[in-house]
Amino acid sequence: MNRLDAVIFDVDGTLVDSERDGHRVAFNEAFEEAGLSDYWDVDTYGRLVKITGGARRLAHWFEERGRNPDEARELAGRLHTRKTQIMRRLIADGRVQPRPGARELIDELDAAGVQIHVATTGTRAWVGPLLDHAFGPDRFRTVITGTEVADLKPSPAAYLEVLRRTGCDRERTVAIEDSANGVHAAVAAGLRCLAARNPYTRDDDLSGAVLIADGLDDPPLLEWVRSRVPTRLV
């Protein structure tokens, strides 16, 4: 078994429970403020969340509803800017919380000297405040977001940028994801991937992962990580 020197985490749905009661709420508030009748219930958002990137998700939705592509993209861009502002407020209000076991796992990895990084398709404007609020400042050595890379998951661009900046050895690095898009991105970057699925991704094809778990506190995931760190975690 290879020693584990670094872990690269996804954010949405992996480190934090941000989709249903964070992003979805912010999108719906943005719709209402703009005087639109659009509304994403839990099931609708579960379908749309397969589309990475909030602006792309909005544009897809508006095109589905009959708007031409140019109009859909323009409206999506405006609404996404406001949605990000709302999301930052929800984060400051404590509405977006870490998934069970996330803080504990990060504390253990840090104590063992394992590098902790982030590769996400979310935008820097809300990812930074969220990570600081949920886990404390400077807990992650490198944070790559959709602001720094043009191609979103399932493209491996975010992971490749983390590897480029850090020089991490792929053989001693693992990604932790929650979705099919994320697993595909990590594997395409040449990384092993652990999948910590959530209710929105329970039916995703996660077969590319070396292990599929029900969360960051799931014993099989913890044992996989603990068996590979330089000093066994307790």
Automatic annotation (TrEMBL):
GO terms for molecular function: hydrolase activity. It comes from the Bacteria. Pfam families: Hydrolase. It comes from Mycobacterium aquaticum. InterPro entries: CbbY-like (IPR044999), HAD-like_sf (IPR036412), HAD-SF_hydro_IA (IPR006439), HAD_sf (IPR023214), PGP-like_dom2 (IPR023198). Signal peptide: none annotated. This is Phosphatase. NCBIfam families: HAD-SF-IA-v3.
